[in-house]
Amino acid sequence: MRSVSVRDLTSVDGSPVPVPDPDHLVHLQFRRFAGCPVCNLHVRSLMLRRAEIEAAGIREVLVFHSTAALLREHTADFPFPVIADPWKLLYAEFGVGASPRALLDPRAWLPIMRAVLRSSVAVARRRERSPSVNPAGGRTGLPADFLIAPDGRIVAHKFGRHVYDQWSVDELLARAKVRGLSPQ
What we know:
By secondary structure, this protein is of the alpha/beta class. The protein has seven helices and seven strands. A hairpin with a 5-residue loop joins strand 6 and strand 7 (about 155-160).
């Protein structure tokens, strides 16, 4: 896939989300399930640097393979559009898969431990809900990142090899800048 056809996705709050966005780069991220501790760890890093991401002309769009109702319970404080894809139709279209190695890869162990610790504290303090024991779509999903230009071209992408193998904010900003797409 070299480009994305124009479409409006629907966020869990009912708002239309244009992909591609005629005014911004879109960082379309495929995450795992609602309440996923590892996904939440990564999303928190994006939230901390939201101003830099927006200044670079990038709009974050997060896709999870959970229902909209379940996602609303887990993502109410996310400042980015969240898309429910419980049947994994977008995952299939973009070639995003799953693998047992998602959790077994040794490079994922430290992020998994940090994520579970952070999430456990947040759940104990009643700041977050516990994730499902048996999430729809399973636990072995892999992350993926796509940087989509306003004309629909996919200018960069990454398919994760384990559960915490995605672009950092620095990598995202560098890709936007290298492509000459960022106003920086």
